[in-house]
């Protein structure tokens, strides 16, 4: 009996659409994908490209899955600390960019909360 774990890892989950939020705050919109390691292995890269994904995010994929199971809409605010196709080792690039990315994410999160405060879902 052959086990096919790659099919277990494929799941297209929709996030909550927020076109007004993205436009107002000039946020990029993209598709998350997942993988089995911090580094970008050839199999992960192939799956990301095949599914028109933008970024690899293992935790985000898990949250999207749970939101789907519970029928709870989700949206993500993501900041990137490392560029997998860069010329530096992933761990080095992560540590080098962590502080700046954390500050940028803090500012963006504050703007997102301010924007959604008092709005209905259809206004987002």
TrEMBL record:
The UniProt keywords, alphabetically, are:
Glycosidase, Hydrolase
**E.C. number(s) listed in UniProt:** 3.2.2.16
Domain Nucleoside phosphorylase: start-end pairs: 21-105
Q: Which gene encodes it?
A: MTN1
The keyword Nucleotide-binding is assigned to this record: no
State what protein this is by name.
Mutanase
Q: Which GO terms describe its molecular function?
A: methylthioadenosine nucleosidase activity
* Coiled coil regions, renumbered to chain: none
Taken from the record, one Pfam family name reads PNP_UDP_1
């Amino acid at each position: 009996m052959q086990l096919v774990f790659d099919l277990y890892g494929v799941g297209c989950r929709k996030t909550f659409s927020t076109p007004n939020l993205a436009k107002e705050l000039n946020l990029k919109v993209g598709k998350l994908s997942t993988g089995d390691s911090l580094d970008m292995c050839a199999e992960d890269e192939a799956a990301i490209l095949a599914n028109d994904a933008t970024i690899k995010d293992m935790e985000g994929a898990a949250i999207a899955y749970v939101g789907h199971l519970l029928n709870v809409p989700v949206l993500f605010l993501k900041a990137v600390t490392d560029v997998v196709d860069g010329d530096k080792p992933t761990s080095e690039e992560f540590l080098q960019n962590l502080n700046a990315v954390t500050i940028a994410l803090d500012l963006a999160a504050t703007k997102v909360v301010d924007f959604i405060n008092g709005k209905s879902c259809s206004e987002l």
